[in-house]
Fold these 2 entries.
Entry 1:
Amino acid sequence: MPLLCDSQRLDVTLSATRIAQMHSRLEEGAKALTSQPTQTFGPKGFLYVQQRELAATTSKDSAISILGSDDATTCHIVVLRHTGSGATCLAHCDGSDTESEVEDILQAVKYLSNNTEDGRLELHLIGGFIDKRRLSQKLSSQLLRAFDNQSDDIHLITLCVSELNDSEEKGIHLPIIYGIAVNVKTAEIFKASCEDRKPDDDLRSAYTFTGGTMLSIYDAKKEQLSIGPYSWIPFPNTAFWLEQEDGQILECFSTSPQAEPPHFVAHIRSTFQFLKENPYPMKSIFADRKPRVYRKQLDGSWERVLSQGT
Protein backbone atom coordinates (compact mmCIF):
# COMPACT_ATOMS: atom_id res chain seq x y z
CA MET A 1 0.00 0.00 0.00
CA PRO A 2 1.10 3.61 -0.55
CA LEU A 3 1.77 6.53 1.78
CA LEU A 4 -1.40 7.36 3.71
CA CYS A 5 -2.88 10.18 5.77
CA ASP A 6 -6.13 9.56 7.64
CA SER A 7 -6.59 6.36 5.59
CA GLN A 8 -6.40 8.33 2.32
CA ARG A 9 -3.62 7.90 -0.19
CA LEU A 10 -1.51 11.02 -0.55
CA ASP A 11 -0.95 12.57 -3.95
CA VAL A 12 2.82 12.77 -3.75
CA THR A 13 3.01 14.68 -7.04
CA LEU A 14 1.79 17.75 -5.14
CA SER A 15 3.95 20.16 -3.15
CA ALA A 16 4.25 19.67 0.59
CA THR A 17 2.25 22.87 1.12
CA ARG A 18 -0.60 21.64 -1.06
CA ILE A 19 -0.61 18.23 0.64
CA ALA A 20 -0.83 19.90 4.05
CA GLN A 21 -3.67 22.14 2.86
CA MET A 22 -5.63 19.07 1.76
CA HIS A 23 -5.04 17.36 5.12
CA SER A 24 -5.64 19.90 7.87
CA ARG A 25 -4.14 17.66 10.54
CA LEU A 26 -0.75 17.85 8.80
CA GLU A 27 -0.95 21.62 8.49
CA GLU A 28 -1.92 22.03 12.14
CA GLY A 29 0.82 19.62 13.19
CA ALA A 30 3.48 21.59 11.31
CA LYS A 31 2.36 24.82 12.95
CA ALA A 32 2.40 23.22 16.39
CA LEU A 33 5.88 21.77 15.89
CA THR A 34 7.43 24.98 14.56
CA SER A 35 5.88 26.85 17.50
CA GLN A 36 7.61 24.66 20.07
CA PRO A 37 10.51 26.11 22.03
CA THR A 38 13.80 24.49 21.11
CA GLN A 39 14.93 21.95 23.68
CA THR A 40 18.55 20.95 24.21
CA PHE A 41 19.33 17.23 24.41
CA GLY A 42 22.31 15.17 25.50
CA PRO A 43 24.32 13.50 26.71
CA LYS A 44 22.43 11.19 29.12
CA GLY A 45 20.47 8.51 27.28
CA PHE A 46 21.09 10.36 24.01
CA LEU A 47 22.34 9.16 20.64
CA TYR A 48 23.32 11.72 18.01
CA VAL A 49 22.75 10.94 14.33
CA GLN A 50 24.92 12.78 11.82
CA GLN A 51 24.21 13.55 8.17
CA ARG A 52 23.89 10.33 6.12
CA GLU A 53 23.47 8.23 9.24
CA LEU A 54 20.53 6.36 10.70
CA ALA A 55 19.99 4.83 14.10
CA ALA A 56 17.16 2.57 15.21
CA THR A 57 16.17 1.17 18.59
CA THR A 58 13.11 0.20 20.63
CA SER A 59 11.36 1.40 23.75
CA LYS A 60 13.03 -1.48 25.64
CA ASP A 61 16.52 -0.01 25.16
CA SER A 62 18.17 0.41 28.57
CA ALA A 63 20.89 2.74 27.28
CA ILE A 64 19.19 5.07 24.79
CA SER A 65 15.94 6.96 25.29
CA ILE A 66 16.43 9.85 22.83
CA LEU A 67 17.55 9.85 19.20
CA GLY A 68 18.38 13.25 17.74
CA SER A 69 19.97 15.17 14.90
CA ASP A 70 20.38 18.84 14.00
CA ASP A 71 22.21 21.26 11.68
CA ALA A 72 19.71 20.42 8.92
CA THR A 73 19.24 23.26 6.43
CA THR A 74 18.29 21.75 3.07
CA CYS A 75 18.63 18.27 4.63
CA HIS A 76 15.60 16.49 6.11
CA ILE A 77 15.33 14.48 9.31
CA VAL A 78 13.18 11.38 9.04
CA VAL A 79 11.57 9.51 11.94
CA LEU A 80 9.81 6.20 11.29
CA ARG A 81 8.19 4.30 14.16
CA HIS A 82 6.19 1.10 14.49
CA THR A 83 3.45 1.56 17.07
CA GLY A 84 3.30 -2.11 18.01
CA SER A 85 6.95 -2.85 18.68
CA GLY A 86 8.02 0.69 19.56
CA ALA A 87 10.89 0.33 17.08
CA THR A 88 11.99 3.82 16.06
CA CYS A 89 14.47 4.96 13.43
CA LEU A 90 15.85 8.47 12.98
CA ALA A 91 17.82 9.35 9.84
CA HIS A 92 19.46 12.52 8.51
CA CYS A 93 18.93 12.58 4.72
CA ASP A 94 20.61 14.93 2.26
CA GLY A 95 19.31 13.66 -1.08
CA SER A 96 22.40 11.68 -2.00
CA ASP A 97 20.52 8.39 -2.54
CA THR A 98 17.00 8.87 -1.24
CA GLU A 99 15.35 5.70 -2.55
CA SER A 100 18.01 3.44 -1.06
CA GLU A 101 18.02 5.37 2.22
CA VAL A 102 14.24 5.07 2.61
CA GLU A 103 14.48 1.31 2.09
CA ASP A 104 17.20 1.15 4.75
CA ILE A 105 15.08 3.16 7.20
CA LEU A 106 12.11 0.88 6.68
CA GLN A 107 14.20 -2.27 7.04
CA ALA A 108 15.79 -0.97 10.24
CA VAL A 109 12.35 -0.62 11.84
CA LYS A 110 11.01 -3.91 10.50
CA TYR A 111 14.12 -5.75 11.73
CA LEU A 112 13.29 -4.66 15.29
CA SER A 113 9.57 -5.45 14.94
CA ASN A 114 8.57 -9.09 15.34
CA ASN A 115 5.19 -8.54 13.71
CA THR A 116 4.54 -5.39 11.70
CA GLU A 117 0.87 -6.32 11.39
CA ASP A 118 0.38 -5.69 15.12
CA GLY A 119 0.46 -1.91 14.96
CA ARG A 120 1.31 0.45 12.13
CA LEU A 121 4.24 2.35 10.64
CA GLU A 122 4.13 6.09 11.38
CA LEU A 123 6.28 8.64 9.54
CA HIS A 124 7.52 12.10 10.47
CA LEU A 125 9.32 14.29 7.89
CA ILE A 126 10.98 17.50 9.08
CA GLY A 127 13.47 19.90 7.49
CA GLY A 128 14.31 22.16 4.60
CA PHE A 129 13.05 25.67 3.80
CA ILE A 130 12.60 27.93 0.76
CA ASP A 131 16.22 27.88 -0.39
CA LYS A 132 17.41 29.61 -3.55
CA ARG A 133 18.38 26.38 -5.33
CA ARG A 134 15.13 24.62 -4.35
CA LEU A 135 17.12 21.70 -2.98
CA SER A 136 14.73 21.44 -0.04
CA GLN A 137 11.66 21.07 -2.24
CA LYS A 138 13.43 18.48 -4.36
CA LEU A 139 14.31 16.39 -1.31
CA SER A 140 10.81 16.72 0.15
CA SER A 141 9.38 15.36 -3.09
CA GLN A 142 11.96 12.56 -3.27
CA LEU A 143 11.18 11.38 0.24
CA LEU A 144 7.42 11.46 -0.23
CA ARG A 145 7.68 9.50 -3.48
CA ALA A 146 10.12 6.99 -2.03
CA PHE A 147 7.90 6.20 0.95
CA ASP A 148 4.88 6.05 -1.34
CA ASN A 149 6.68 3.40 -3.41
CA GLN A 150 7.09 1.00 -0.47
CA SER A 151 4.91 -2.11 -0.24
CA ASP A 152 4.00 -1.49 3.43
CA ASP A 153 1.27 0.80 4.71
CA ILE A 154 3.01 3.94 6.01
CA HIS A 155 0.99 6.61 7.79
CA LEU A 156 2.26 10.18 7.51
CA ILE A 157 1.88 11.84 10.91
CA THR A 158 4.12 14.90 10.59
CA LEU A 159 4.95 16.92 7.47
CA CYS A 160 7.03 19.96 8.36
CA VAL A 161 9.26 20.42 5.32
CA SER A 162 10.35 23.11 2.86
CA GLU A 163 7.69 25.87 2.76
CA LEU A 164 6.09 24.52 5.94
CA ASN A 165 9.39 24.99 7.82
CA ASP A 166 10.32 28.38 6.42
CA SER A 167 10.79 31.78 8.04
CA GLU A 168 11.95 35.05 6.50
CA GLU A 169 14.17 37.61 8.19
CA LYS A 170 15.14 40.79 6.32
CA GLY A 171 14.48 39.10 2.99
CA ILE A 172 16.51 35.99 3.88
CA HIS A 173 14.75 32.63 4.12
CA LEU A 174 15.77 30.34 6.99
CA PRO A 175 14.58 27.03 8.43
CA ILE A 176 12.47 27.33 11.55
CA ILE A 177 13.53 23.89 12.73
CA TYR A 178 17.16 22.81 12.36
CA GLY A 179 17.00 19.79 14.63
CA ILE A 180 14.63 17.11 15.87
CA ALA A 181 14.73 14.60 18.71
CA VAL A 182 12.42 11.66 19.33
CA ASN A 183 11.78 9.96 22.66
CA VAL A 184 11.82 6.25 21.84
CA LYS A 185 9.88 5.47 25.03
CA THR A 186 6.96 7.85 24.45
CA ALA A 187 7.18 8.54 20.67
CA GLU A 188 7.20 12.31 21.34
CA ILE A 189 8.86 14.52 18.72
CA PHE A 190 10.70 17.66 19.84
CA LYS A 191 12.20 20.71 18.18
CA ALA A 192 15.78 20.18 19.27
CA SER A 193 19.33 21.38 19.59
CA CYS A 194 21.89 18.67 20.30
CA GLU A 195 24.79 19.47 22.61
CA ASP A 196 26.45 16.06 22.40
CA ARG A 197 27.67 14.76 19.02
CA LYS A 198 30.05 12.10 20.30
CA PRO A 199 31.67 9.68 19.78
CA ASP A 200 34.15 10.06 16.92
CA ASP A 201 32.32 13.07 15.49
CA ASP A 202 35.24 14.15 13.26
CA LEU A 203 35.72 10.62 11.96
CA ARG A 204 32.03 10.25 11.11
CA SER A 205 31.94 13.68 9.46
CA ALA A 206 35.02 12.88 7.40
CA TYR A 207 33.38 9.72 6.08
CA THR A 208 30.30 11.66 4.94
CA PHE A 209 32.37 14.56 3.60
CA THR A 210 34.34 12.22 1.34
CA GLY A 211 31.19 10.75 -0.21
CA GLY A 212 30.25 7.93 2.14
CA THR A 213 26.78 6.44 1.82
CA MET A 214 24.21 6.34 4.63
CA LEU A 215 25.06 3.85 7.38
CA SER A 216 23.24 2.40 10.35
CA ILE A 217 25.36 3.19 13.40
CA TYR A 218 23.55 1.47 16.28
CA ASP A 219 22.93 -2.17 17.18
CA ALA A 220 19.84 -2.06 19.38
CA LYS A 221 20.04 -5.73 20.30
CA LYS A 222 23.56 -5.32 21.68
CA GLU A 223 22.93 -1.68 22.73
CA GLN A 224 26.19 -0.68 21.08
CA LEU A 225 27.18 2.06 18.65
CA SER A 226 29.53 0.96 15.87
CA ILE A 227 31.71 3.28 13.78
CA GLY A 228 33.45 2.07 10.62
CA PRO A 229 35.69 0.68 9.42
CA TYR A 230 35.80 3.46 6.82
CA SER A 231 38.07 4.06 3.87
CA TRP A 232 38.32 7.09 1.63
CA ILE A 233 40.48 8.57 -1.07
CA PRO A 234 42.70 11.33 0.40
CA PHE A 235 40.76 14.59 0.22
CA PRO A 236 42.62 17.04 -2.04
CA ASN A 237 44.08 20.35 -0.88
CA THR A 238 43.17 20.12 2.80
CA ALA A 239 46.07 22.43 3.74
CA PHE A 240 44.85 24.98 1.19
CA TRP A 241 41.29 24.93 2.52
CA LEU A 242 42.45 25.27 6.10
CA GLU A 243 44.14 28.56 5.11
CA GLN A 244 41.02 30.07 3.53
CA GLU A 245 38.77 32.72 5.05
CA ASP A 246 35.59 31.62 6.78
CA GLY A 247 33.44 33.21 4.08
CA GLN A 248 35.16 31.24 1.34
CA ILE A 249 34.63 27.95 3.15
CA LEU A 250 31.00 28.82 3.80
CA GLU A 251 30.32 29.62 0.14
CA CYS A 252 32.11 26.57 -1.20
CA PHE A 253 30.89 23.87 1.17
CA SER A 254 27.35 24.82 2.11
CA THR A 255 24.19 24.19 0.08
CA SER A 256 22.68 27.27 1.76
CA PRO A 257 25.37 29.65 3.06
CA GLN A 258 23.01 32.27 4.52
CA ALA A 259 21.11 29.70 6.55
CA GLU A 260 23.92 27.78 8.23
CA PRO A 261 24.25 27.72 12.04
CA PRO A 262 27.13 29.76 13.52
CA HIS A 263 29.37 26.75 14.10
CA PHE A 264 29.23 25.48 10.50
CA VAL A 265 32.65 26.76 9.43
CA ALA A 266 34.35 25.56 12.62
CA HIS A 267 32.85 22.12 11.99
CA ILE A 268 34.17 22.06 8.40
CA ARG A 269 37.63 23.20 9.53
CA SER A 270 37.72 20.45 12.13
CA THR A 271 36.79 17.90 9.47
CA PHE A 272 39.50 19.23 7.13
CA GLN A 273 42.09 18.96 9.90
CA PHE A 274 41.04 15.38 10.57
CA LEU A 275 41.27 14.50 6.86
CA LYS A 276 44.70 16.11 6.67
CA GLU A 277 45.91 14.02 9.60
CA ASN A 278 44.25 10.82 8.38
CA PRO A 279 44.48 10.57 4.58
CA TYR A 280 44.38 6.77 4.79
CA PRO A 281 42.06 5.78 7.67
CA MET A 282 42.50 2.06 7.07
CA LYS A 283 46.12 2.59 8.11
CA SER A 284 45.82 5.23 10.83
CA ILE A 285 42.47 4.33 12.45
CA PHE A 286 41.27 0.94 11.26
CA ALA A 287 44.52 -0.96 10.85
CA ASP A 288 42.85 -3.97 12.50
CA ARG A 289 39.95 -3.73 9.98
CA LYS A 290 37.47 -3.69 12.88
CA PRO A 291 34.84 -1.12 13.85
CA ARG A 292 35.17 1.21 16.81
CA VAL A 293 32.44 0.02 19.18
CA TYR A 294 30.97 2.03 22.07
CA ARG A 295 28.42 1.60 24.83
CA LYS A 296 26.51 4.47 26.46
CA GLN A 297 27.26 4.93 30.18
CA LEU A 298 24.85 6.16 32.85
CA ASP A 299 26.53 9.58 32.95
CA GLY A 300 25.98 9.99 29.19
CA SER A 301 29.55 9.31 28.11
CA TRP A 302 30.45 6.70 25.49
CA GLU A 303 32.86 4.00 26.61
CA ARG A 304 34.91 2.12 24.02
CA VAL A 305 34.14 -1.60 24.04
CA LEU A 306 37.34 -3.58 23.71
CA SER A 307 36.29 -7.18 23.39
CA GLN A 308 36.67 -10.09 21.03
CA GLY A 309 35.17 -9.29 17.65
CA THR A 310 35.58 -5.52 17.97
Entry 2:
Amino acid sequence: MIKMKISDLGEKKLIKRIIANIRSHLKDFNIEGLGDDAALIDMGEEYIVATTDLLRQTSHFPEATTYEQMGWKSVTVNISDLAAMGAKPLGFLVSMGLPAHMRVEEFDELLGGILKACDHYRVPLIGGDTKEADEIILAGAAIGRTLKGEVLWKSGSEEGDLVGVTGQLGLAAAGIKILLSKMGEVPVAEDLLSRIMDPALKPRARLKESLLIAKSHLVNAATDITDGLVSELNELINASPRTIGIRLYEEKLPIPSEVEDIARFLNEDPLELGIYYGEDFELLFTLPPENVTPLRDQLDFHIIGEVTTTGTIEMVDKEGRTYILPVKGYEHLRG
Protein backbone atom coordinates (compact mmCIF):
# COMPACT_ATOMS: atom_id res chain seq x y z
CA MET A 1 0.00 0.00 0.00
CA ILE A 2 1.38 3.37 -1.08
CA LYS A 3 1.18 5.90 1.73
CA MET A 4 0.18 9.43 0.78
CA LYS A 5 2.48 12.33 1.64
CA ILE A 6 1.18 15.70 2.75
CA SER A 7 2.69 17.22 -0.39
CA ASP A 8 0.28 15.02 -2.39
CA LEU A 9 -2.62 16.85 -0.75
CA GLY A 10 -1.34 20.40 -1.15
CA GLU A 11 -1.87 23.35 1.17
CA LYS A 12 -5.63 23.89 0.83
CA LYS A 13 -6.59 20.20 1.14
CA LEU A 14 -4.31 19.84 4.16
CA ILE A 15 -6.03 22.78 5.86
CA LYS A 16 -9.44 21.25 5.11
CA ARG A 17 -8.24 18.02 6.71
CA ILE A 18 -7.24 19.93 9.84
CA ILE A 19 -10.63 21.66 9.99
CA ALA A 20 -12.49 18.37 9.60
CA ASN A 21 -10.57 16.94 12.56
CA ILE A 22 -11.04 19.87 14.96
CA ARG A 23 -14.76 20.56 14.54
CA SER A 24 -15.72 18.20 17.37
CA HIS A 25 -12.86 19.55 19.48
CA LEU A 26 -14.29 23.09 19.23
CA LYS A 27 -17.92 22.21 19.96
CA ASP A 28 -17.65 23.47 23.55
CA PHE A 29 -15.97 26.76 22.59
CA ASN A 30 -17.40 29.95 21.10
CA ILE A 31 -15.30 29.80 17.94
CA GLU A 32 -16.60 30.61 14.45
CA GLY A 33 -15.07 31.15 11.03
CA LEU A 34 -13.56 27.68 10.45
CA GLY A 35 -12.58 27.53 6.81
CA ASP A 36 -12.74 31.30 6.42
CA ASP A 37 -9.72 33.63 6.32
CA ALA A 38 -9.43 33.87 10.11
CA ALA A 39 -10.95 32.41 13.28
CA LEU A 40 -13.58 34.39 15.19
CA ILE A 41 -13.82 34.30 18.98
CA ASP A 42 -17.25 35.35 20.25
CA MET A 43 -16.93 38.28 22.66
CA GLY A 44 -20.56 39.37 22.86
CA GLU A 45 -21.20 42.31 20.51
CA GLU A 46 -17.96 41.77 18.64
CA TYR A 47 -15.45 39.14 17.60
CA ILE A 48 -11.77 38.84 18.32
CA VAL A 49 -10.25 37.77 14.99
CA ALA A 50 -7.11 35.61 14.89
CA THR A 51 -4.96 34.31 12.05
CA THR A 52 -1.48 32.92 11.46
CA ASP A 53 0.77 32.27 8.48
CA LEU A 54 4.19 30.69 8.10
CA LEU A 55 6.77 31.75 5.50
CA ARG A 56 9.96 29.87 4.60
CA GLN A 57 12.88 31.53 2.89
CA THR A 58 13.25 28.87 0.17
CA SER A 59 9.52 28.47 -0.55
CA HIS A 60 8.04 31.95 -0.29
CA PHE A 61 10.75 34.43 -1.21
CA PRO A 62 12.59 34.83 -4.54
CA GLU A 63 16.36 34.86 -4.17
CA ALA A 64 16.52 38.64 -4.69
CA THR A 65 14.27 39.36 -1.69
CA THR A 66 15.98 41.47 0.97
CA TYR A 67 15.72 40.73 4.67
CA GLU A 68 13.63 43.86 5.11
CA GLN A 69 11.19 42.68 2.43
CA MET A 70 10.93 39.27 4.14
CA GLY A 71 9.99 40.95 7.38
CA TRP A 72 7.48 43.21 5.64
CA LYS A 73 5.74 40.31 3.91
CA SER A 74 5.48 38.26 7.12
CA VAL A 75 3.28 41.02 8.52
CA THR A 76 1.35 41.70 5.30
CA VAL A 77 0.17 38.12 4.74
CA ASN A 78 -1.42 38.07 8.19
CA ILE A 79 -2.91 41.56 8.01
CA SER A 80 -4.41 40.61 4.65
CA ASP A 81 -6.30 37.78 6.36
CA LEU A 82 -7.70 40.25 8.90
CA ALA A 83 -8.63 42.56 6.02
CA ALA A 84 -10.47 39.71 4.32
CA MET A 85 -12.69 39.48 7.43
CA GLY A 86 -13.16 43.24 7.83
CA ALA A 87 -11.20 43.29 11.09
CA LYS A 88 -9.12 46.12 12.55
CA PRO A 89 -5.70 44.88 13.75
CA LEU A 90 -4.94 44.83 17.48
CA GLY A 91 -1.53 43.18 17.59
CA PHE A 92 1.05 41.15 15.70
CA LEU A 93 3.32 38.36 16.94
CA VAL A 94 6.14 36.61 15.10
CA SER A 95 8.26 33.58 15.91
CA MET A 96 11.44 33.32 13.89
CA GLY A 97 13.61 30.39 12.90
CA LEU A 98 17.05 31.88 12.19
CA PRO A 99 20.26 30.32 10.81
CA ALA A 100 23.21 30.41 13.20
CA HIS A 101 25.39 32.03 10.52
CA MET A 102 23.00 34.98 10.06
CA ARG A 103 24.78 38.26 10.78
CA VAL A 104 23.38 40.64 13.40
CA GLU A 105 22.96 43.43 10.83
CA GLU A 106 20.92 41.04 8.67
CA PHE A 107 18.69 40.25 11.63
CA ASP A 108 18.28 43.97 12.31
CA GLU A 109 17.20 44.44 8.68
CA LEU A 110 14.66 41.62 9.02
CA LEU A 111 13.29 43.10 12.24
CA GLY A 112 13.26 46.54 10.62
CA GLY A 113 11.01 45.23 7.86
CA ILE A 114 8.61 43.80 10.42
CA LEU A 115 8.47 47.07 12.33
CA LYS A 116 8.02 49.16 9.17
CA ALA A 117 5.07 47.00 8.15
CA CYS A 118 3.59 47.21 11.65
CA ASP A 119 3.87 51.01 11.49
CA HIS A 120 2.28 51.01 8.02
CA TYR A 121 -0.74 49.01 9.21
CA ARG A 122 -0.81 50.74 12.60
CA VAL A 123 -0.51 47.50 14.54
CA PRO A 124 1.87 46.94 17.49
CA LEU A 125 4.40 44.12 17.57
CA ILE A 126 3.45 42.48 20.86
CA GLY A 127 5.49 39.29 21.10
CA GLY A 128 7.18 36.29 19.52
CA ASP A 129 10.09 33.89 19.89
CA THR A 130 13.34 32.88 18.17
CA LYS A 131 14.90 29.49 17.54
CA GLU A 132 17.80 28.25 15.44
CA ALA A 133 16.85 26.82 12.03
CA ASP A 134 18.48 25.82 8.75
CA GLU A 135 16.83 28.73 6.95
CA ILE A 136 14.76 31.79 7.81
CA ILE A 137 11.27 30.77 8.93
CA LEU A 138 8.76 33.45 9.92
CA ALA A 139 5.62 32.32 11.72
CA GLY A 140 3.45 35.40 12.12
CA ALA A 141 0.13 35.76 13.89
CA ALA A 142 -2.26 38.70 13.85
CA ILE A 143 -5.11 39.54 16.20
CA GLY A 144 -7.93 41.92 15.33
CA ARG A 145 -11.47 42.86 16.24
CA THR A 146 -14.72 43.55 14.43
CA LEU A 147 -18.34 44.17 15.30
CA LYS A 148 -20.50 41.14 14.59
CA GLY A 149 -22.55 43.05 12.03
CA GLU A 150 -19.45 44.03 10.08
CA VAL A 151 -17.80 40.64 9.52
CA LEU A 152 -16.90 39.86 5.91
CA TRP A 153 -17.70 36.18 5.33
CA LYS A 154 -16.86 33.94 2.39
CA SER A 155 -20.27 32.32 2.48
CA GLY A 156 -22.83 35.02 1.58
CA SER A 157 -22.81 35.18 -2.23
CA GLU A 158 -26.22 35.21 -3.93
CA GLU A 159 -27.27 34.42 -7.49
CA GLY A 160 -27.17 37.65 -9.50
CA ASP A 161 -24.45 39.26 -7.37
CA LEU A 162 -21.66 40.96 -9.25
CA VAL A 163 -18.02 40.04 -8.60
CA GLY A 164 -15.63 42.84 -7.68
CA VAL A 165 -11.89 43.16 -7.09
CA THR A 166 -10.10 46.13 -5.54
CA GLY A 167 -7.12 46.42 -7.87
CA GLN A 168 -5.07 45.00 -10.73
CA LEU A 169 -4.24 41.34 -11.23
CA GLY A 170 -1.01 39.67 -12.24
CA LEU A 171 1.53 42.33 -11.23
CA ALA A 172 3.01 40.24 -8.42
CA ALA A 173 3.10 37.17 -10.66
CA ALA A 174 4.91 39.10 -13.40
CA GLY A 175 7.42 40.44 -10.88
CA ILE A 176 8.14 37.02 -9.42
CA LYS A 177 8.50 35.54 -12.90
CA ILE A 178 11.08 38.23 -13.71
CA LEU A 179 13.00 37.45 -10.53
CA LEU A 180 13.01 33.74 -11.31
CA SER A 181 13.94 34.26 -14.97
CA LYS A 182 17.52 34.09 -16.26
CA MET A 183 16.67 35.91 -19.51
CA GLY A 184 18.39 39.20 -18.67
CA GLU A 185 17.02 42.72 -19.01
CA VAL A 186 13.27 42.95 -19.57
CA PRO A 187 11.74 45.32 -22.16
CA VAL A 188 9.96 47.59 -19.68
CA ALA A 189 10.84 51.17 -18.69
CA GLU A 190 12.41 51.57 -15.23
CA ASP A 191 9.40 53.34 -13.70
CA LEU A 192 7.03 50.69 -15.00
CA LEU A 193 9.35 47.92 -13.85
CA SER A 194 9.14 49.26 -10.30
CA ARG A 195 5.34 49.01 -10.52
CA ILE A 196 5.76 45.33 -11.22
CA MET A 197 8.48 44.58 -8.68
CA ASP A 198 6.86 46.34 -5.72
CA PRO A 199 3.84 43.96 -5.55
CA ALA A 200 6.21 40.99 -5.83
CA LEU A 201 8.69 42.08 -3.17
CA LYS A 202 6.72 44.44 -0.94
CA PRO A 203 2.99 43.61 -1.19
CA ARG A 204 0.41 45.68 0.61
CA ALA A 205 -2.74 44.37 2.27
CA ARG A 206 -5.95 46.21 1.43
CA LEU A 207 -6.77 46.98 5.05
CA LYS A 208 -8.20 50.47 4.57
CA GLU A 209 -10.47 49.26 1.78
CA SER A 210 -11.67 46.29 3.80
CA LEU A 211 -12.73 48.43 6.74
CA LEU A 212 -14.68 50.69 4.36
CA ILE A 213 -16.35 47.66 2.79
CA ALA A 214 -17.19 46.15 6.18
CA LYS A 215 -18.80 49.33 7.48
CA SER A 216 -20.74 49.87 4.24
CA HIS A 217 -22.87 46.70 4.65
CA LEU A 218 -23.04 46.59 0.84
CA VAL A 219 -21.11 43.35 0.22
CA ASN A 220 -22.41 39.78 0.57
CA ALA A 221 -19.12 37.83 0.62
CA ALA A 222 -15.39 38.59 0.56
CA THR A 223 -11.89 37.13 0.73
CA ASP A 224 -8.37 38.18 -0.25
CA ILE A 225 -6.43 36.98 -3.28
CA THR A 226 -3.35 35.10 -2.12
CA ASP A 227 -3.48 31.80 -4.05
CA GLY A 228 -4.90 33.11 -7.34
CA LEU A 229 -8.23 34.55 -8.48
CA VAL A 230 -9.74 31.24 -9.60
CA SER A 231 -8.68 29.45 -6.43
CA GLU A 232 -10.23 32.17 -4.25
CA LEU A 233 -13.44 32.22 -6.33
CA ASN A 234 -13.68 28.48 -5.73
CA GLU A 235 -13.38 29.21 -1.99
CA LEU A 236 -16.44 31.50 -2.23
CA ILE A 237 -18.33 28.79 -4.12
CA ASN A 238 -17.45 26.06 -1.60
CA ALA A 239 -18.29 28.30 1.37
CA SER A 240 -21.81 29.04 0.13
CA PRO A 241 -24.65 26.94 1.59
CA ARG A 242 -26.30 27.18 -1.83
CA THR A 243 -25.14 25.89 -5.22
CA ILE A 244 -23.51 28.86 -6.88
CA GLY A 245 -21.05 29.43 -9.68
CA ILE A 246 -19.06 32.34 -11.06
CA ARG A 247 -18.97 33.72 -14.61
CA LEU A 248 -15.97 35.91 -15.44
CA TYR A 249 -15.52 38.17 -18.45
CA GLU A 250 -12.00 38.26 -19.86
CA GLU A 251 -12.38 41.78 -21.24
CA LYS A 252 -13.24 43.05 -17.74
CA LEU A 253 -10.26 41.52 -15.94
CA PRO A 254 -7.89 44.30 -14.72
CA ILE A 255 -4.70 42.76 -16.10
CA PRO A 256 -2.45 45.75 -16.91
CA SER A 257 -0.42 46.11 -20.10
CA GLU A 258 2.86 45.70 -18.17
CA VAL A 259 1.83 42.14 -17.29
CA GLU A 260 1.05 41.42 -20.93
CA ASP A 261 4.46 42.82 -21.97
CA ILE A 262 6.32 40.72 -19.42
CA ALA A 263 4.29 37.62 -20.33
CA ARG A 264 5.21 37.97 -24.01
CA PHE A 265 8.87 38.44 -23.15
CA LEU A 266 8.92 35.37 -20.88
CA ASN A 267 6.69 33.30 -23.17
CA GLU A 268 3.97 33.16 -20.51
CA ASP A 269 0.19 33.53 -20.82
CA PRO A 270 -0.86 36.87 -19.26
CA LEU A 271 -4.28 35.44 -18.43
CA GLU A 272 -2.62 32.62 -16.48
CA LEU A 273 -0.57 35.15 -14.53
CA GLY A 274 -3.69 37.19 -13.78
CA ILE A 275 -6.07 34.47 -12.65
CA TYR A 276 -3.95 31.59 -11.33
CA TYR A 277 -0.65 32.73 -9.85
CA GLY A 278 -1.85 34.78 -6.88
CA GLU A 279 0.10 36.94 -4.41
CA ASP A 280 -1.98 39.99 -5.43
CA PHE A 281 -3.40 40.59 -1.92
CA GLU A 282 -6.38 42.39 -3.47
CA LEU A 283 -9.85 41.99 -1.98
CA LEU A 284 -12.33 39.84 -3.89
CA PHE A 285 -16.03 40.26 -3.12
CA THR A 286 -19.60 39.83 -4.38
CA LEU A 287 -22.39 42.37 -4.05
CA PRO A 288 -25.90 43.04 -5.41
CA PRO A 289 -25.96 45.17 -8.61
CA GLU A 290 -27.81 47.98 -6.86
CA ASN A 291 -24.94 48.32 -4.35
CA VAL A 292 -22.22 48.97 -6.94
CA THR A 293 -22.76 52.73 -7.21
CA PRO A 294 -23.01 53.36 -3.44
CA LEU A 295 -19.79 51.39 -2.87
CA ARG A 296 -18.02 53.18 -5.72
CA ASP A 297 -18.70 56.41 -3.88
CA GLN A 298 -16.35 55.10 -1.17
CA LEU A 299 -13.58 53.25 -3.06
CA ASP A 300 -12.36 52.21 -6.50
CA PHE A 301 -12.86 48.64 -7.71
CA HIS A 302 -13.44 46.59 -10.85
CA ILE A 303 -16.49 44.48 -11.71
CA ILE A 304 -15.19 41.31 -13.36
CA GLY A 305 -18.14 38.91 -13.38
CA GLU A 306 -21.34 37.65 -11.80
CA VAL A 307 -22.63 34.91 -9.53
CA THR A 308 -24.56 32.09 -11.24
CA THR A 309 -26.03 28.74 -10.17
CA THR A 310 -23.84 26.53 -12.38
CA GLY A 311 -21.56 25.28 -9.63
CA THR A 312 -18.58 26.01 -11.88
CA ILE A 313 -16.26 28.90 -12.74
CA GLU A 314 -16.78 30.00 -16.33
CA MET A 315 -14.87 32.43 -18.52
CA VAL A 316 -16.40 34.41 -21.36
CA ASP A 317 -13.46 35.21 -23.63
CA LYS A 318 -12.99 38.33 -25.72
CA GLU A 319 -14.72 36.65 -28.68
CA GLY A 320 -17.80 35.85 -26.58
CA ARG A 321 -17.10 32.14 -26.21
CA THR A 322 -17.78 30.53 -22.82
CA TYR A 323 -15.67 27.77 -21.28
CA ILE A 324 -15.18 26.26 -17.83
CA LEU A 325 -12.00 27.19 -15.98
CA PRO A 326 -10.12 24.40 -14.19
CA VAL A 327 -9.67 25.09 -10.51
CA LYS A 328 -6.05 25.42 -9.54
CA GLY A 329 -3.95 27.95 -7.70
CA TYR A 330 -0.54 28.73 -6.32
CA GLU A 331 0.42 26.02 -3.80
CA HIS A 332 3.09 27.04 -1.26
CA LEU A 333 3.59 23.52 0.09
CA ARG A 334 6.52 21.79 -1.60
CA GLY A 335 7.15 18.09 -1.92
